[in-house]
Amino acid sequence: MNHEKLYNPLQHGYIRLLQIQVPESQASDHNISCSLSCIALTDVPPATPVKEESQDWHELSTAHWNYRTLFSPADPSKSVRRYRAGLPRVRIVATPAAPVSKNEVLRSSYIALSYVWGPSTQNKQILVNGHLCPVTDNLYAALDQLQHCVAIKTGLRIWVDALCIDQNNLEEKAYQIELMHKIYAQAQHVVIWLGPESPWTRSAFTAIS
pTM to 2 decimals? Predict the structure, then answer.
């Protein structure tokens, strides 16, 4: 991958955003094709608080979790319900933000992707601005899931460090790392990708729910 052709210098206060292109047909040499664009953080509208019952990102998982007891049924005193009842109550209060139109959100907003880099071996490839870019298996799996979401299909862009920062430019990396707290704070959503489903996934979600 030629970093000089893919990455143009960033101006002060700007970040790059990744947009996944909707394929014209199912038949494609590469499953994921993206484009990079730049935006000033000052142009990003305030993040809209997400209500607890919101299902905006339900399509990231089609599984219907079965909240069964994780422990032995022979000992009902150790049920998940009883365990949850003993946890301290935490109340989150969000300050309502001014309403933002859908077009404005798509034009200047983004989601931030947080994920485990995993092994450094880059076994997968995606197209970014027409250039083949090697990515890790875990990042590829995350982008593959995101590309099926309605918001992404309609143009909502993604900030992901491995692709939105020129990893070969040490000066840019240092400056972008300083901006990370603002990047995550101003994102409309932060999507946390833990990895593909495993045999223990259901049990883990049962425990934290």
Answer: 0.70
